[in-house]
Every structure is written in structure tokens, then in C-alpha cells.
Amino acid sequence: MRISLIAAALVAVPLLAGCGGGGDDKPAVTQAEIAKSLQDGGLKDEKLANCAAKLFVDEGISQDGLRLMIKNDAKAATAVDPESMGLTGPDIEKARSATNKIVSQCLK
After folding, report:
1. Residue spans per domain, the chain
2. How far apart are alpha carbons 32 and 3 in whole angstroms?
3. Which letter does DSSP use for residue 102 in this model?
4. pLDDT tens-place string over residues 39-72
5. DSSP for 42-73?
6. What's the alpha-carbon Rg for the chain, to the nearest Å?
7. Is the whole-model pTM more than 0.90?
């Protein structure tokens, strides 16, 4: 069971990453939207999705980065590395940090 939980955390970022971008004229991406995107992408554990979403927001990933993450078509997500998924600059390290925290904090 622990292996499947760790696997879920490791796929959280790819499930959220995708193509696109955002402008300042768009509303802020919420934690609830991120959690829903995770669940729509196959992460059926609501508590885990909410915990992961909170960590992505708390890490301070930019709004453009969060928009990029929730626009993903989960079935096409094959990259594990945030840079390969389209994130750039500081968002790459923030996404990696959030993923590590998901493993340590959400999978208890």
C-alpha cells in the first residue's frame, strides 16, 4: 500500500502539468481547483488530493505555473520532471519541493 501511495505522490506533478499559459487578467488558481484537477486526473483519494493541492499553493508556484499545471490532459502526461512538463524558472524547484513534501506529509 505504501508503494502505491508514494507512486500517487510521484504522479501528482505530471497529472497537473500541461501546455498553455496564463495572463494577469485571469482569476487566481485556487487550491480547490488544483485538488479537482488531481482527482479528475486519476488521484481518487480526496484527502490526498487536497493535501497535495495545499502544498503546491504553499510552495508559492506562480499563477502562470499553476494554470499550466491544471490545464493538463492527464492521459498525455508522461514526464516526471517539472521542466519537461513546461514549468520554468523558480516554479521547477517549487514543484519538486512540493512533490517531496507530498511524500513526507500527505502519505502518512
Report:
1. 31-107
2. 26
3. I
4. 988 888 999 999 999 999 999 999 999 998 887 6
5. T---HHHHHHHHHHHHHTT--HHHHHHHHT--
6. 12
7. no
